[in-house]
Amino acid sequence: MTSYIRYRPDLEQPFxxxxxxxxxxxxxxxKANRQVADKHRHGLRDAHAKSHGVLAGELRVQPNLPAHxxxxxxxxxxxYPVIVRFSSAPGDLRSDQVPVQRGIAIKVIGxxxxxxxxxxxxxxxxxxxxxxxxxxxxxxxxxxLQDLLEKQPRQSDQxxxxxxxAARVAAKALTRAGxxxxxxxxxxxxxxxxxxGETFHSMAALRYGxxxxxxxxxxxxxxxxxxxxxxxDRKAGESALRDLVVDFFAHNSADYDIRAQLCxxxxxxxxxxxxxxxxxxxxxHEVVAVLHLPAQNAxxxxxxxxxxxxxxxxxxxxxEAHRPLGSIMRSRRTAYPASSDFRHRLNDVEPxxxxxxKELPA
Length: 362
Ligand code: HEM
Prior knowledge:
This protein is α+β, with helices and mostly antiparallel strands. The chain contains nine helices and nine strands. It has helices at 18-40, 139-143, 146-151, 157-176, 183-188, 222-225, 240-251, 301-310, 327-347, and strands spanning 50-61, 79-88, 102-109, 123-129, 200-201, 206-208, 211-219, 254-262, 286-293. α1 (18-40) packs parallel to α9 (327-347). Protoporphyrin IX containing FE binds at residues 25, 29, 45-48, 85, 87, 103, 105, 127-129, 134, 142, 202-204, 274, 312-313, 328, 331-332, 335-336, 339-340, 343. This is Catalase family protein.
């Protein structure tokens, strides 16, 4: 019988100088963010600045989950309203032709239970990216990226596209030679595929009630499954992904499996190193809910303004049952409010955390 690691606070092992590392990262991100805001004369997110679709939907917790999966938000079968924002990773408005990582942020409204931090909210956010691991998997490694982060705003879309191309050539050569890909090559070599066919991952671990898990979202319905691996048309322009999302949801609905991969071996499935892929042979991704997104207008002006300027998503908008774990997650407790406060202040927009799906404009 599989034995699932039980959550205990001492599974987390902070670095002795962690606060200083976080301070450095947040400061570097803030600098980059000010350059970008100056370029656009508008405050944007420090990361995942560009949205491609903003949707209302439902999270349908599956009935009859076995005890190890019936935890936290997923303890009882229930249907929760959600707001979903699709995005690209850079903290700038890049052309959709630049093959960077893509994200989905899911805000579950009305999540019952004690909070991870005392924020008075009822939301549970899941922030997922279309890659299973974070190459720089702890905050000390991540801090080494600072230089790159500060330089990125000064690189043109063409430079980024060329870097991606060079990384893909290098990745092919290394794979042919049977050599592992260095983390930077792996990140930069992403191909440019239809965003709705992607599988998205939490990369880092979170508490899963009595246990510990990584969360992912994978295409479930045939219409989105058919989009997996479909290249983005090179002639489709700078907003190709928004156009694809809007076209799709004008006539179609989409279902994604929300899956939990529970930790069964703390050494081979570490909490403090998000660069380690948790082996599926040790623990499968098990479906715990279905994310249902009906047909709708996925990108009205009012929605874009609300999602980009008013809302904030954060892994720390969380139930205690889904407390984010590990140094990468802990650093995000400071990084997200810093980014969110900056853009709200600059744009003179009041932040709002929704308690009702009706707050999302049509
Ligand atoms: C496990 C790794 C990570 C994942 C999966 C992830 C994912 C995401 C996603 C999907 C968004 C977009 C949210 C939205 O649509 O509003 C986002 C935003 C952001 N991320 Fe991350 N991220 C990760 C790590 C980090 C780290 C280590 C930092 C910095 C220390 C960071 C800083 C930010 C910031 C500042 C924002 C914008 C927040 C705002 O202004 O509302 N992320 N991230």
